[in-house]
UniProtKB/TrEMBL annotation:
Family: Belongs to the 2-oxoacid dehydrogenase family.
Cofactor: (R)-lipoate
Keywords carried by this UniProt record: Acyltransferase, Lipoyl, Transferase
Protein name: Dihydrolipoamide acetyltransferase component of pyruvate dehydrogenase complex
Comp. bias intervals (Pro residues): 124-134
Enzyme class: transferase
Organism listed in the record: Saccharopolyspora taberi
UniProt xrefs under InterPro entries: 2-oxoA_DH_lipoyl-BS, 2-oxoacid_DH_actylTfrase, 2-oxoacid_DH_E2_comp, Biotin_lipoyl, CAT-like_dom_sf, E3-bd_dom_sf, PSBD, Single_hybrid_motif
Residues annotated as domain Lipoyl-binding: 1-76
Lineage: Bacteria, Bacillati, Actinomycetota, Actinomycetes, Pseudonocardiales
Length: 416
């Protein structure tokens, strides 16, 4: 019996929540067949099994959180069984082609299989009971992941007073959450929504941004009448590749970052690192919450290619098919909160980036044109920036450049 452990999913992730099992006990699986969907702090991903055989056990149910390295599924492979309860490394003698970090196939000595005579294949022998361990200091208590210890510390929970429900008494997240609930005063009503998965990741990142980045905000109202006309002309030329307003303003932002590179940077220790590539993040609202997909090398894309990339990433985010790498590595973010019908917002910088550009709704407003009052399409642009990387002159210069592009898009794009 081979126990396949939850592999390292990258980006320093230490655990994942089981969203859905794709197989059941008794099913036959092939090498690299997806067996489960798990949700990490970055995305929902399918986990392929590197074994071929018959599923004999699923180690967890939907909603359970398991640690990287803990058993995920047990498979009876042809040719014998491993000792029960032993987590073995995935086989490297087969060319499975899987891509998850922490396991894979290649050229390595084959594993030794050990046959056993007792216990039917579909049974998992229970571990031999052991006597209660002596009380130990809190810092010696076994927990399933560092995140569980951090959760307890943040809520003032003494791990030494918790009886773990994991193997060998290991304390799991659910044990700490139960202890937290026990310390809370009774509620007369209401609904509790746990901060897990993507929601927890977003909350942690926004909290860290507010804690570490001394941000400031500048804003300006712009006449977007010609921008709407330019977009209409572009889409009339190639209706099969429509260009979105977000793509146009994102394109202007990329051009502006070339002129004001301080805003395409990050602070590391006591240094400001100016980045050569522009990996453009953009806020996208999905059923799973707010996501920030990243279009890599946005500086190398023209307006239509950038628009296509934004559309593709948005669709993937809403379908839940973005990989963790699609949600990390951004250097600058644009946020079109105008789709929610609001004019402006003091957006929170997407840590560890240095700035975020916000776009409000476009509405009819009175506007002075050539000394006369006219009704124009006006929107508000805002820029929140890390005051450590630049001052108001640089931030204002960038925002004014983007505003000028919005008001004179034909000149800025050079495409019409």
């Amino acid at each position: 019996m081979a126990d396949f452990a939850l592999p390292d999913l990258g980006e320093g992730l230490t655990e994942a929540e089981i969203v859905n099992w794709l197989v059941a006990v008794g099913d036959e699986v092939a090498v690299d067949q997806p067996v489960a969907e798990v949700e990490t702090a970055k995305a929902v991903v399918e986990v392929p099994c590197p074994y071929a055989g018959v599923v004999r056990a699923l180690h967890g149910k939907q909603g359970d959180t398991i640690a990287v390295g803990a058993p995920l599924i047990s498979v009876e492979e042809p040719g014998g069984f491993a000792e029960p309860g032993v987590v073995v490394a995935p086989p490297r003698e087969e060319s499975s082609g899987n891509v998850l970090i922490g396991y894979g196939t290649g050229n390595a000595p084959p594993r030794r299989n050990r046959r056993r005579r007792s216990a039917a294949p579909e049974q998992i022998p229970a571990p031999t009971p052991s006597p209660e361990p002596a009380a130990a200091p809190t810092n010696a208590v076994a927990v399933i992941s560092p995140l569980v210890r951090q959760l307890a510390r943040q809520n003032g929970i003494d791990l030494g007073g918790i009886r773990g429900s994991g193997p060998g008494g290991v304390i799991r997240r659910c044990d700490v959450e139960a202890a937290i609930s026990a310390t809370e005063p009774p509620s007369s009503g209401g609904k509790r929504i746990p901060l897990t998965g993507l929601r927890r990741a977003v909350a942690d990142k926004l909290t860290r941004s507010r804690r570490e980045i001394p941000e400031a905000t500048v804003w300006v109202d712009v006449d977007a009448t010609d921008l709407l006309a330019a977009r209409a002309a572009l889409n009339a030329r190639e209706p099969e590749h429509p260009v979105s307003l977000l793509a146009l303003i994102a394109r202007f932002a990329v051009l502006g970052l070339r002129r004001f590179p301080e805003l395409n940077s990050r602070v590391e220790a006591d240094e400001i690192v100016l980045l050569d590539e522009i990996h453009l993040g953009f806020a996208a609202q999905t059923d799973r919450g707010l996501m920030v997909p990243v279009v890599r090398d946005a500086h190398a894309l023209n307006t239509r290619a950038l628009s296509d990339a934004l559309r593709t990433h948005t669709a993937a985010g809403r379908a839940g098919t973005l990989s963790p790498s699609d949600l990390t590595g951004g250097t600058f973010t644009v946020n079109n909160y105008g789709v929610f019908g609001v004019d402006g917002s003091a957006a929170i910088i997407n840590h560890p980036e240095a700035a975020i550009l916000g776009i409000g709704r476009i509405i009819d407003r009175p506007w002075a044109v050539d000394g006369e009052l006219a009704l124009r399409k006006v929107c508000e642009l805002t820029l929140a920036f890390d005051h450590r990387v630049c001052d108001g002159g640089t931030a204002g210069g960038f925002l004014r450049f983007v505003a000028d592009c919005v008001e004179s898009p034909i000149t800025a794009l050079g495409e019409l």
